[in-house]
Design a protein that fits this description.
alpha+beta; 5-stranded antiparallel sheet; 740 residues; single chain; 5-stranded mixed sheet; elongated; 37% helix
Length: 740
């Protein structure tokens, strides 16, 4: 038989209300010791409910609320606000009193009068619901609502946990009740209200009243007016239905309801209510600004790098889970090494010299010698997710584990590393070799034995490059066969060890650097950050520092956290470094980089590099104060930079001095403008006899990796690959097929 609606006395109506209201009335039953018929109707006896209540542990733990973290540059400017949940924790004093009152008046006007359960409210709701024949009123107190929000917060992005935290079940309501009672014992009413206002969701990704005030009114919660506070307080019941952006009329009606409640409970005057009711919504909406995608001047890539440092470096937690928890909870103030002026200089250079729609792209990293501090990190294509706009999240400046691809062959920019190993092993800086135009790779020693690259040849870039050469001329002209002969004498092991000391232990893809004859010609893929850091050691007279991006971190409790250290160590003697600096000054004064002088005439040192088929071109150069590495090439695969237009300029063939060199030059001119000029410590290099015969200056330089043989030295190619799943910025043509 169908159930009949009760038409009896009020208690009978309350019984029907209890069936409909469920656990809210049960709360009243438990606290008051009442044994209404509805308990049986719910399938529970009073003893059952008491036992269930007693079995719930009372160690309710309030979570550390997730909130936004701020990433700052070295001058205190905000790079980006990042968060899993947009929330800023406030104290009671940082909230407008009218906001606190409005939330109480609309949610639980007797909040300061009752305990964890409002029995009067329970019976009132039960009666109203009985009369309506459905659940039209709830009786949960603000404290109980806070407990529910805690469960939702703890669920995070776990959908199953969220459903469990929000399902309408007797067990959950009983649990909420016990924890609410516990909270009322441990906290004051004002503390509970403050916690509630910090945890509550107000729609549009705004968690807590501060984020809500920023989102809808572009102001802080302490500055909210009566109508503004009323609108926000009204949102809590149903942020979607009362959304002022999509449903402004409903939002205004709900706001007016809250204003009238404030008037009814005598918390505002009639005149204040009249003015508030007449006021427009006054929305000044501010879109959620989350993550590195909001960073300006190309800082998004550095921002993403910082986030990976925190999630990966053991300084921020022993386990991956510990570090992820730190990042997700947020509330961090992260102060970084990024110099906004140098970042602007680097970003301007890579975007002005190379067009975003070009088939190639450029990347530049700046490092401060002697500190490891990353001062700038820029690339041509903007940070973002829309490949049709040539945006990318692939950071071409760094290794794959830090958000980059699998790197690029550095070409002849690797030759100074062998020269450093040679000088450290005792070879004179005047060392000569026959340096024929072409030769086969000779047998070479390794750390484990030897390598014999049988029948593979290497040659110089120009037919006129025929030795003998000394080290100074060979470095200036980037003579391939000279360095292969030096490599044979020194051995692959010392060169590998020097590379390791300069931070090149692994390639960009994470695999160890290989001891193969073509190593000196830069056929193994590395990143611009790696090369900038290595050359910074030359500038610092041999002191190598691990690259660092973070100077300090303060957590949500105001505690300073440990941050990764540069761990600087002498990679070579100062005399060796001075020798390398002297050699690389020769490159920029009379060699392949002679066209790259700076406007103020200060000393610069550096090395050009170009790979086979012009798949990549480099210039890595420095002053005593700043090291910068610039790469130019195909961002998503091999693009031969022959007969190509880059930045509106036609190139029949790109070299290190003609492609990345001018980018480096512009970036350094801007970055060093107005800074003190200093000079390198140099060594005297006697002119040896006999000297090398002159070469035709009209011929291109010999900075081509592997001398025209992609397979030289046991490696496959000098190209570029990237991990799957990356947003790579298309092919430079808005998603259309590019030229190869």
């Amino acid at each position: 038989m169908a159930s009949q609606r009760s038409t009896g006395n009020p208690l009978d109506k309350a019984g029907l209300g209890i069936k409909l209201l469920g656990s809210a009335v049960l709360a009243g039953v438990l606290v008051a010791g009442m044994a209404l018929p509805a308990v049986g109707a719910l399938g529970l006896t009073a003893k059952d409910t008491a036992d269930s209540f007693d079995n719930i542990p009372d160690d309710f733990k309030q979570p550390t609320l997730s909130q936004a973290s701020m990433i700052y540059d070295s001058k205190g400017g905000l790079i980006a606000k990042v968060y899993d949940r947009d929330r800023t924790i406030l104290t009671q004093e940082q909230m407008a009193p009218i906001m606190r009152q409005a939330q109480v008046d609309i949610e639980d006007n007797r909040f300061y009068e009752h305990g964890a359960v409002d029995l009067k409210g329970v019976l009132r709701a039960a009666t109203k619901n009985a009369e309506a024949g459905s659940t039209t009123q709830g009786a949960s107190t603000l404290t109980q609502q806070y407990v529910k929000n805690v469960f939702v917060e703890q669920a995070g992005d776990d959908q199953q946990a969220f459903l469990e935290a929000t399902k309408k079940s007797m067990g959950r309501k009983i649990q909420e009740l016990k924890y609410a009672i516990k909270l009322e014992e441990d906290l004051t009413k004002d503390q509970i209200l403050t916690n509630y206002l910090n945890i509550t969701f107000y729609g549009h990704q705004a968690y807590g009243v501060e984020a809500a005030a920023n989102r809808y009114f572009s102001k802080s919660a302490k500055d909210l007016t009566i109508p503004e506070a009323a609108m926000l307080a009204g949102l809590v019941q149903n942020p979607s239905a009362y959304d002022p952006i999509t449903h402004p009329q409903a939002a205004q009606a709900r706001r007016n309801t809250v204003i009238n409640k404030l008037l009814e409970y005598k918390h505002i005057s009639p005149d204040e209510a009249k003015a508030a009711l007449a006021a427009p919504l006054g929305i000044k909406y501010r879109e959620p600004q989350n993550g590195c995608i909001t960073a300006q001047n190309g800082m998004g890539f550095f921002c993403a790098y910082v986030s990976r440092v925190i999630k990966q470096d053991p300084a921020f937690g022993k386990t991956t889970a510990d570090r992820q928890k730190l990042w997700s909870q947020g509330g961090l103030k992260i102060y970084t090494t990024l110099d906004p002026d140098k970042q602007a200089a680097a970003n301007n250079a890579v975007t002005k010299k190379v067009n975003v729609t070009d088939s190639v792209s450029a990347a530049a990293t700046m490092v401060k010698p002697g500190t490891g501090e990353i001062l700038a990190m820029a690339q041509t294509r903007p940070y973002g997710l829309d490949s049709t706009k040539n945006q990318t999240t692939l950071n071409l400046n760094v290794d794959s584990n830090m958000g980059g691809g699998n790197g690029f062959s550095p070409g002849s920019t690797f030759k100074p590393i062998l020269a450093a190993a040679a000088l450290e092993s005792g070879l004179p800086i005047t060392q000569q070799y026959p340096s024929p135009n072409k030769m086969d790779y000779p047998k070479m020693s390794t750390c484990e034995g030897s390598w014999n690259e049988k029948g593979v040849s290497v040659q110089n870039e120009s037919a006129s490059e025929v030795g003998p050469f000394d080290l100074k001329d060979a470095m200036a002209k980037s003579v391939n066969t000279y360095f292969v002969q030096m490599e044979q004498e020194v051995g692959l092991c010392p060169m590998k060890q020097m590379a390791n000391k300069l931070g090149i232990k692994n390639l960009a893809n994470g695999t160890p650097i290989k001891q193969v004859p073509s190593m000196v010609l830069g056929t193994q893929e590395v990143s611009p950050l790696t090369m900038a850091s290595a050359y910074a050691a030359f500038a610092a007279r041999g002191l190598y520092c691990n690259p660092i991006a973070i100077t300090s971190v303060v957590n949500a409790d105001g505690k300073k956290l440990e941050v990764p250290k540069a761990n600087c160590a002498q990679a070579m003697s100062q005399t060796t470094a001075d020798g390398i600096n002297t050699l690389l000054l020769g490159v920029t004064e009379k060699g392949t980089g002679s066209s790259l002088g700076l406007d103020d005439g200060r000393q610069i040192a550096g090395k050009t590099g170009t790979t086979d088929n012009r798949y990549a071109a480099w210039f890595t150069g420095y002053t005593p104060e700043l090291a910068t590495s610039v790469w130019l090439g195909g961002p998503t695969g091999n693009v031969s930079m022959k007969n190509i237009r880059i930045g509106g300029r036609y190139f029949d063939s790109v070299f290190g001095a003609t492609g990345p060199g001018p980018i480096w030059q512009q970036a350094m001119n801007d970055a060093l403008d107005g800074t003190p000029r200093t000079s390198f410590q140099t060594v005297n290099i006697p002119v040896p006899t006999p000297t090398a015969p002159p070469t035709d200056p009209s011929q291109p330089s010999g900075d081509n990796a592997a001398g025209g043989n992609n397979n030289a030295g046991g490696l496959i190619n000098g190209g570029f690959t990237f991990p799957p799943g990356w947003t790579t910025g298309g092919n430079g043509n808005g998603g259309k097929p590019g030229h190869r």
